[in-house]
Every structure is written in C-alpha cells, then in structure tokens.
Amino acid sequence: MRFRWKVRALRVICGLVFLMAATSSNFAIGDLPDEEIMIEEAFMHIGQEYQVFFNYDRAIVADIKVNYEPEKYGSVQEVLEAVFSQTNLQYQMFESRYIAVFQNDKTGIESLKKMIEHFQKIVDRQVLRDELPRRPTVQLQSLTLDRLYQKKLELNISGTITNEEGEALIGVNILVKGTGKGTSSD
After folding, report:
1. 111 near 102, Cβ under 8 Å?
2. Alpha-carbon distance 55 to 130, whole Å?
3. Distance (Å, rounded) from C-alpha 70 to C-alpha 32?
4. pTM of whole model > 0.70?
5. Nearest CA to 82 among 45, 119, 48?
6. Parallel, antiparallel, or unpaired: how do β-strands 53-55 and 35-38 relate?
7. Tens-digit pLDDT profile for residues 53-109
8. Angstrom distance (rounded) from CA 111 to CA 102
C-alpha cells in the first residue's frame, strides 16, 4: 500500500515537473517580448515599420545579434539608438529615410568609401544619361498581314564566287531558292 502511494506521488510530481517545463519552454520561445535576433532581421523589421532603407556592408553585420523589442519604441530614432547601442556599429540617417551603417574603424571607413564610390557611379551614369540629346522617336505603323505581304523586301547580297582553286568565276547564274528571281555574277 505504501509502495503504491509513493508511485502515485512520484507520477504526480513527474507530471507537474513535465507540465512546468513544457509551459516555461513555450513561454520562452514565443511570448517573451524582448528576443535576440540577427541585426539584419532587425533592419528588415525597422524598415517595414518606419519606411526607412538601410545600406550596409554585410561583412560588418554578420553574426551580430541584438535584442529587438518593437513595442517599446515610439520613433525610428528611439529604435535605432536602442539597437545600435548593443553593437560597435555607427549609423547616419539622411533625409529621414536612408540609413548608412558603418564601423568607426579603418575597415569600416574603407567599406563606407566603397559604398560612396558605388553610389557616385550610379549618379554619374544617370546624369550622363539625362544630358544625352534625345532623338525624336518615330511612331511605328501597324500593318495588316495583307499589307505586310505586299511590302517588298530587298536585300543586297555581295560576295565572290570561286572554284576549288580559289579563282573568281564569271557568269555564274544565281537564283533565289523557291523563286524565279536571280542574277549572274560579273
């Protein structure tokens, strides 16, 4: 009798421990408001929430995790300060929409220079494209199949007709395959 009571008590205790472990693990996985995520994922969430665009070198943000608590922030400035305070990264915001992320060291500044050069090339190409004179375009006419078949297609074909020894041949008849049209070589 005493043995059965101990077995029952042990089962109840094991069940409670299992239940507590299961509930605490579910709570820890999905319900905690502050969770650690990759900084690139935080950039994605911030970009969607505040309509901003991040520009960064993936090498400098690789493997950086941050605590991101979206419900805690009232402005984009607050969220940026909270996220970047957890890293060794710096940021600069332009026109309230564009955010350049960089490391304030020699490698980070070199990466930033490369980004600037890349953007400058894009700007230069666009300026050059805008400065090119524009030729007026001619509107194409649409033709019916009947009119298309009536149009003459003229091709000028030139070349030299030679024999096996490479000597030019004169007076060779040349016909367009499937037609009675042709000429002779001169």
Report:
1. yes
2. 25
3. 12
4. no
5. 45
6. unpaired
7. 998 888 888 889 999 888 888 889 999 999 999 998 989 898 889 998 988 888 888
8. 8
